[in-house]
Amino acid sequence: MHALMVIRTYLKLGVLNVVQYRANFLFDLLSVGVYLTTSLLSLAVIFGQTQTLRGWTRDQLIALVGIQILVGGLNGLVIRPSMQQLMENIRLGTLDFMLTKPADSQLLASVQQVNIGSIAEVVVGLAVILTALARLGTEVGADGALLFLVMLVAGATIVYCFLLALSTCAFWFVRIQNILVIFQATFNEAGRWPITIYPGWLRATLTFLIPVAFAVTVPAESLTGRLTTLTTLATLALALGFVAASRWFWRVGLRHYTGASA
Amino acid sequence: MRITPSTARTRESSVPWADSAVIAVRGLRKVYEVPEREGGVRAAAGSLFRRRTREVVAVSGIDFAIQPGEVVGFLGPNGAGKTTTLKMLSGLLYPTSGEASVLGFTPWRRDRAYLGRMTLIMGQRNQLTWDIPVIDSYELNRAIFRIPWPEYRRRRDELIDLLEIGELVRKPVRNLSLGERMKCEIAGSLLHQPTVLFLDEPTIGLDVGMQRRIRAFIADYNERYDATILLTSHYMADVEALCRRVIVIHHGSLLYDGDLPGLVRRFSPHKTITVEFEEGFSQAPGERLAALIAPAGEVVEQSAIGATLRVPKAETARVTGRLLAELPIADLTVEDPPIEEVIERVFSSGSSEAPGQDQVAAEITREAERR
Question: Tell me, what's the ipTM?
Answer without folding.
Answer: 0.83
